[in-house]
Amino acid sequence: xxTVLGVAGGIAAYKAAHIIRRLRELDHSxxxxxxxxxLNFVGAPTFEALSGQTVTTDVFDEIDTVNHVRIGxxxxxxxxxxxxxxxxxxxxxxxxxxxxTATVLTTTAEVVVAPAMxxxxxxNPATVANIATLRARGVHVLDxxxxxxxxxxxxxxxxPEPEDIVAYALSVTEAAGASxxxxxxxxxxxxxxxxxxxxxxxxxxxxxxxxxxxxxxxALDPVRFLGNRSSGKQGIALAKAAHAAGAEVELVAANIxxxxxxDLPAGITITPVESTLELQTAMHASQPAADxxxxxxxxxDFRPAETTGSKMKKTGxxxxxxxxxxxxxxxxxxxxxxxxxxxxxxxxxxxxxxxSTALDYARAKFARKGVDLLVFNDVSNDRAFxxxxxxxxxxxxxxxxxxxxxxxxxxKDDVSQKVIAALTEQLTDLESTP
Length: 434
Hints:
In the N-terminal section; belongs to the HFCD (homo-oligomeric flavin containing Cys decarboxylase) superfamily. In the C-terminal section; belongs to the PPC synthetase family. Catalyzes two sequential steps in the biosynthesis of coenzyme A. In the first step cysteine is conjugated to 4'-phosphopantothenate to form 4-phosphopantothenoylcysteine. In the second step the latter compound is decarboxylated to form 4'-phosphopantotheine. The chain has 15 helices and 20 strands. Strands 8, 11, 12, 13, 16, 17, 18, 19 and 20 form a 9-stranded mixed beta sheet that branches. Strands 2-1-3-4-5 form a 5-stranded parallel beta sheet, sandwiched between helices.
């Protein structure tokens, strides 16, 4: 495959070398097109040695072959990694003042953008709007990873790992190839009701769904934490179901076992987080470009008021007193910052008590949170966490009245099909509303 690798001028440019090597291992012909600033981080000889092709940044080089047009025309795949806030802004504005931006403007190939920048830049309203513009035009934009940035800074903005970028790019081209190879195909099964069979294979095509999963951990010291028993299995099943329905999926994964994550299909973006505050940051960063948000993660209501820098020691037989502070209500915050006709789905794992049933508490949560759908499961007597079988009821509204679906029992994959079907129906209803 003829692949163009664009490299913008950020500290993560060194990772482009690993991307080139991986693509070459997969028999790609790789044409590296850096910006002039990128060459301040990695020199042209490195790119040329790894790719086996000449490297230039100027539209006036190789004029005899009309290089600034030919490269984009010949490309079968374009990857930009790292993509800085500057290059993203140029592409969104249609600027073509160097070889890379001219290549993007002329290509008809799939374009994959892997951003890398400081958190403040990623969350700036200008960048948020530019990312939304690119996605609306069909450009495939990965969300950056959360982690260590330049210097002491840490947060969302880190370039995803090279192997993840390559895997995502290949999944994009495979999906595009399958779509082109089978235009107008029709399955008799796709003519049945999604309420009965789950979402169709293309019912969420063109949609971006962000799903949180797992359980947050609140650090007490470098060794201990306050956590919960969520395995993340339900969120993973939801991500698979949304992906199978054609959606572009980001999974914000809170402390999920790597073995479970390895089962996800290629093309699902994984954003790892640990604490509730990290989860909040990741969800709000991804919200502006999402058609729907599904909050399936089990979020800690409280966190320690103080975290020690070293392991706490026993101090006799007096025990330990912890002072806790309340965590932000992420779900309510997402509802308050809803973007346009965005659909927001919450989960309620409840138990009953002497005052009310578990369903009563779920119904009250639905009214309090303001979500479009609430997936309720009764977790009394260890009925849900860690198991592959569960039972849920989907709470919604119609004509201003709360509706409560019949209890649905099955595997977490079955439940996910049910939830994605309900979400698809919500999105379809919005489109048909005048």
